[in-house]
Structures are given as structure tokens and as C-alpha cells.
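QA checklist item 7 of 12: single-chain prediction sanity check.
[x] sequence parsed
[x] length recorded as 589
[x] structure emitted
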Amino acid sequence: MDTMRSDAGARQPVDNPDKMLFHDRISDSVGQMVKNPQTTSRTKQQSLRKKQVKDSLVMDSRKKSQELRQQKERLRKRVLDSLNNTVMKARLQDSISQVVRIQRYKDSLRQATLKERERDSLKMAALMQKSDAVLRQRERRKQLRDSLREAEKKNSQHTLFRQGGAQTTRNSAQALQQERVHEVTSKISRQEVVAISAGAVPSVQTLSAKSSAKRRLDSLSAVAADFYGRGLYANALVPAKQALLLARKVHGTNSAGEAASMVRLADNYRSMKQYNAAELLYNRALAITQNISGVWHRDAGLLLYTLARLSFEQQQYQLAEQYFRQALSVREKEEGVDGPGVVDIVYDMGQLYHRLQNYNAALLYYSRLLAIREKSVRADDLEFAAMLYSIADLYAAIGQFDVAADFFQRSLDIREKLSGPSHPDVAFSMNGLAMVYQKQRQYTVAELLYKRSLAIQEQTFGPAHPEVAVTLQSLASVCRFQKKYDAAEHYIKRSVEITEKNFPATHLNVAKSLNSMALLYLELGNFGVAEPLFKRALAISEKKLGAYHTDLAQVLENMALMYEKMDRKKQAESFAKRAERIRELADND
């Protein structure tokens, strides 16, 4: 039934709803919604719940994916680290085996060379004895000829006198005298010729003896120098003493020749660590040189530098500073401010002020050193590698570890390139680099470097050398930080044993080893062993360093920590205050 309208325009319902228009359906549905508001709110809530669930699922998936990525990154880093450690261990094992092979080969060559040199020295001594015997035989023959000539001359003069030829005799005597003067002057110096012209004619026997003594002096000096060059200082001592006595006879006392023989003998005493005898001879040679050549002569500056180095080796730092300054003034006047001799003294003065913990002065001298060396053509030699090592050590002392690592690495690269991977200087640079890694708490890398350095030093110096003791002490420290107490105790016991055998009981190296051992037992809680070790280290440090050195402050701080753990508060406070006072004075300086 179709839709019908009344006259009033009212809309009448139809019997079949399928025949309703579209806009009529829409209006009916809207009407129903308006009529049922509860249905509408329920629909909205369901849609909100669906959206929240969807958002939560999205967030969960994002979190899970992020966690998965982080886990993958950690796993990848762990794998890379393990691979790097494996590679480093493999390289270390290869390098150690290579070092052992090379060192064995070097030892065999060194032994063969020493045997050959001993044979050569014996041959040389035999030749010298033969030459001395030949010279003595020649002197005897010459004396015999001279005596025969004198006898013949007397006989001829007597015969001529008896024949009445007095004038002929005078002419013959003058001719013989002129011939004798010509023979003598051909063998002596110009000064002696002047003396002869004045009437002082030496005999042939005197001149021959003097020439023989000069040759003997040269032979003794050559033998002493040969033994000294091979490190056989005890063998070199006897010919060096004989050369000094003979030099006084040949050249005279207070002469340049006597001073040169004194320096050679002093070098031998210095190498044997007999510093008092060496210092006396150096000072005597310096006085002679300054008297002959002047205060500003190059030889005087060289002796001043040698005395400075000798005082530095004996830890007489104030005296060393005085000698260094005098030697630097002589070198600067002779070579200029950038001369090669100036570089050596500037470097040593930097080391001196570093040892005195005057870091500002040390940095000034090292900066001057780098400025001079940058102008030099030889930019990568072994001497420069040693200087870079000292500069790196200074930066490590003041806590600039990144700068120190760069200088240590430069030194290591130069030494490995020029000296090979098994040279002891390479081990020194490795120790410095390992020390920086230890300060930066990279203990695994530091331990590997220390072990590689230890292998090189044991093969080169032997297992009981002082340098081996230093590396063992560093290894013990690294193992202690990693809580490898058994290994640390093994290393530090070896270090203390070697140090006490090689140094006096009051040496600073002994104090450092004792302090390191005491720290280990302090960490283990064994106070009964740690306390006497600390006390010995403190007594040595006070005697050698004085009452206000920062190394002494470190020992005092360690003892304060020990007494605090032992619940001895008063002693802990006393040592802590002393250490704090030393630190304050150092900061003010």
C-alpha cells in the first residue's frame, strides 16, 4: 500500500517497511538512538576499551622489541670482548714464544762473541808482551852500539892527539856533535828543539825511554778501554790504575794527560758503583781541566755534567741540581740554547725535578725539550723514545692518563720499530702503558702487558734482576685489585726477595716493595704481618725522603687505614693528620 497524504499533509504509515524511502530509514534509526541513550554509551565504552587494549598491545610489543635489541647488543659486545681477549692471549703467547726463540739465539751469539773476544784479548796481551820484549831488545842493542861509538870516538881522539892533529880533533868532535843533535831532534818535539838550541841536549837513552813509556801508556789505556767496553770492570781496573801512574810520569802531574787517565779510572769505579772513589777522581780532573783550559771549556762542562749524573745516581739531588745548572751554562755558551748537548742536560733536569715532585719545573724543562726536538731531523730515534717515556711518566704522575697513554704508546712504537719486540726498552714502555691501564681500572689488559714485559726482562736480565722485581711488584698490585690473592702473594714475595738482595736495607726500592706487601696483607686482614712491614717502609722513607714527601704521605695513609681497621682510633687519627699535612704543603707548593 503506497504512502498517502491527508489534506492536512500528515504522513501515513505504510504496510510494507521494505518500501520505505532511505531517508525515512535513517530518520527512524536516529529516532531509535535518541529514544535509547543507554545503548549509545555502551557502544562508546566498548570502543574505548578496544582502543586501550590495542594501545597497550602496541606498547608491549615496542618494549619487547627494544629489550630484544638490547639483549642482542649485549650479547654481541660480550662475544666481541671474548674474541678480543682470545686474540690478545694468542698474540701474547706467540710473542712470548718468539721472544724466547730470539733470546736463545741472541744468548748463543753473545756467548760465542764473548769467547771470541776473550781469545782476542789473550792474543793481544801476548802480542803486547812480544812487542815489549822486542822493544827492550832493541834498546839494549842501541845502548851497546852507542857505547861502542863512544869507545871508538875516544880512541880516535887519543890517536889524533898523539899525532899532533889537535885542530883535526876539534873538527871531528864538532861533526860528531852536529850528527848527534840531528839524530836527536828528528825524534823530539819543537819545544825540545828550542831547549836543545839553548844548550840542554837530552841523551838518546832518555828520549828512547820516554817514547817507550808513551807506547806503554797507550797500550794500557787500550786494554782498559777494551775490558770496560765489554763490561769486565774488575779486569779493567788494574790497567786503568797503571795507566794513571804512568801518565803522571809521561805527562807530569796536573796535566791534561793525567786528567784524562783520571776520568777513565773514575768511569770504571762508577760502573762498579764505587761512587766515593769515582767522585774524588772526577773532582780532581775537573780542577785540573779548569786550571788548564778555563771554567767555560767544553771538557769542564762535560765533567760537570758527569758529576751531576753521579750525584743523581746517589740520590744527592741538591748537589745534582747545582752541577746540572753549571753544566747547562757551559753548554749554552758553547753550543747555543738549542744545541745537542743542551738537549741532554734539559732532559736530565726534567727528570731531576720530576724525582723531586716539582712538577711545574719538570713540565717547563720537558716542554723546552720537545720544542728543541721538533726542530731536529732525527724525530724517531731511540734517545727520543726514552724522552717520550719520561714525559709520559710525568703526565701519569699528575693524573693526566690519556696524555700519558699517548706518550707511552709513541715510545713503545719507536722502540719496537728500531730495537725489535724483545728488547728490554720495549718492556719498559710496556710497563708504563700497563700502569696507565691499571690506573684506568682496565686490569685485564694491564696484567697481560705486565706478563709480556716480565717474560722479556727475565730472558734478558735473568730472574733475579732489580727490573724484574719492579715488574713483579706491579703484577702483584694488579692481581690484588682483581682479588687474585694467591698470585699477588707469589709475585710480591719474589719482588721483595730480589730487591733485598740487590739493594741496601735502607734503599727506597726496598721501602716500596715492603709497602706493597703490607697492603696485600692489610687487605687479607693479616694485621700482625702488615704492621711491621709498614713500619719498616715508613722508617726508610723518612730517612731517604724527609718528613714532607708525598710518597711518605702514601705510607702514612696506608698505616692510618690499617689502625682504623684494627680499631686503634688514636693512632689512625695521628697518621692521617700527618699525611694530610704533607698533602697540604705539596698543594701549596
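[x] summary fact logged: Confidence is low (pLDDT under 50) at residues 1-27, 158-207.
[ ] second reviewer sign-off
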